[in-house]
Amino acid sequence: MSNHGHEESQHGSGRYDPPPPRSEISGPTGGTLEDLRRSVVALRRRVLRLSDDLRLAIRRADEAADRNREHVCSLESLEMMCATQGGEIGRYRAEIHRLREERDALQSSLESDRIIGLEPPQPAPEISALETQIVDLNRDLDRQSDEVHHRQAHIDDLSRDRGHLESTIRHLTSEMTQAGGEILDLQQANHDLDRSREDAESTLSATEESMRRTRSELDRVETELILSRSDRADRGPSGPDPQSSQADPQLMGPTQAGLDQIVRERDSQQDQIPQKAYAERERTITENQAQIRTLSRDLSKVVRERDALRHEYTAAFQRLTSISATIGAPPPQTQLRLEPGSDTDQPAGGIPRSPSAETSGSEDQDADTSKSKRSRSRSTSPSPSRPQKKRSVPVEADDESMDEEDESEFDLGGGSTGGGSPSPDQASTPPAKDSGPRQSSGEVIEVRSGSDEEEEEENAEVADDLYEAQTLMAISQSRSEARRGEHVSPQRGSSGSPGGSDGSDSDTGSGG
């Protein structure tokens, strides 16, 4: 039993060294703004999936807390039964003491009669019956004492197990809170990325407008030059004007210099602005990928600790059942369901299934939900009650990101089917410059897609999904805190149990 308690203390401490999960998130190593948008959409969907897994882990922790509360109630009932049996033992001892006093009184009276009558002592039948009854009572007393000691040892073991379970639940709760905070930070980083992308698009629009104005000014200057040359050609046969011949070089010099400067500024803006925007977005996406990998490792650790807690709960439930059968008490009300097919439809006292089955089920549900939401968002207009961001993410990019997401099945334990994460040097490498001639302003305008309504609907759908995920996570956290508050009162009530169980609880709490 001591070895078993040592193993449970190792499980309850929650100190695991899981292997570092392989990441399946790989950012764009090169490409255009379309690849960047597809990567952002994939990151958002993975954040939603991690949020669902976090809510599932919170629900499992709440179920473990409920089972622990049931253990506490059963332990209190056992302590009450032990107290009742202790009272019966005291009553038996008082009865034995009374019978011994009666026996001594009878023996003294018989001795006095024998001395007075000088007759040989004869055994009295009452004394023999009393001695037989005393022997039986002593035997029952010894048996009851052994049983009480055995039950007290079981109660001490259950108290230690309860302390280990409580420490494990607290550890899991802190891990889930930390994972929720990281998910919120990642969502905020995605929102910041969207805002910076919108700022870059507005800057690009302003630059294009400036280029159009510059081109119109250039066309006007060229038209004036052509007109001035044609005027000089018309006035050529009549003789050149000395004043105009002196003024033309003076006018042509500043005009040509300003024109060259405008062309150089336009070329530098065309080269620098897209490169800076692309480098900034790649750096932000790399940071988000690192955060998602860290969150995946934390989530796999939470799943492993949940499995250890489930094994500890199973062992404690079996010991509690054996103790109840030994003392003749009614069995506990918790029904263990270890079938691997019941995950969401099982009762609150059941044990969840393996994490691999949960991962596949959650991925199928996410795929069905995303398809149904996409068809609904394209058929109806977005809700006007919630503010929406205008993002220019094309529908083709979203479909391609969904295909990429289906090809790389996301594993909660950190595993991946192929492909590693890019190094920071590869992620921050800007795309190669185009060696061909630069595009004109009309060609830049033609690059922008005309399907703005579908893009806005797709972005509104993603924003609604993020809002729903945050709302559900906040509700789950509030319910978990309320249940933990209810769990404090039975824990304090069990500290005053007879037989020294409160001392074992205090030692366990200080050690945990």
Name the descriptors:
512 residues; mainly alpha; 10 helices
Describe this structure in words.
This protein starts with a helix and ends with a helix. The protein has helices at residues 2-13, 33-117, 125-235, 242-327, 355-379, 395-407, 424-427, 441-447, 452-493, 501-511. It has one domain (2-235, 249-338, 358-433). By secondary structure, it is mainly α. α2 packs parallel to α4. It contains ten helices and no strands. Residues 1-32, 192-284, 324-512 are annotated as: Disordered. Residues 396-410, 452-467 have a biased composition (Acidic residues).
Radius of gyration: 41 Å
**Which residue ranges are poorly predicted, with pLDDT under 50 across at least 5 consecutive positions?**
1-30, 335-449, 493-512
The geometry reads as rod-shaped
Percentage of helical residues?
Answer: over 70%
Biggest sheet, open or closed, and with what strands and sense? none
Structural class: mainly alpha
Beta-strand portion reads under 5%
- Please tally the β strands and state the result: 0
Order of helices and strands: HHHHHHHHHH
Q: What count of structural domains?
A: 1
Distance between the termini: 19 Å
Number of helices: 10
Rounded mean pLDDT score: 66
Biased composition (Gly residues): 412-421
Biased composition (Basic and acidic residues): 1-10, 209-235, 480-489
Biased composition (Acidic residues): 396-410, 452-467
Coiled coil: 89-147
TL;DR?
This protein is mostly helical.
Itemize the secondary structure elements and their pairings:
Blueprint: H1 2-13, H2 33-117, H3 125-235, H4 242-327, H5 355-379, H6 395-407, H7 424-427, H8 441-447, H9 452-493, H10 501-511
Helix pairs in contact: 1-3, 2-3, 2-4, 2-6, 2-9, 3-4, 3-9, 3-10, 5-9
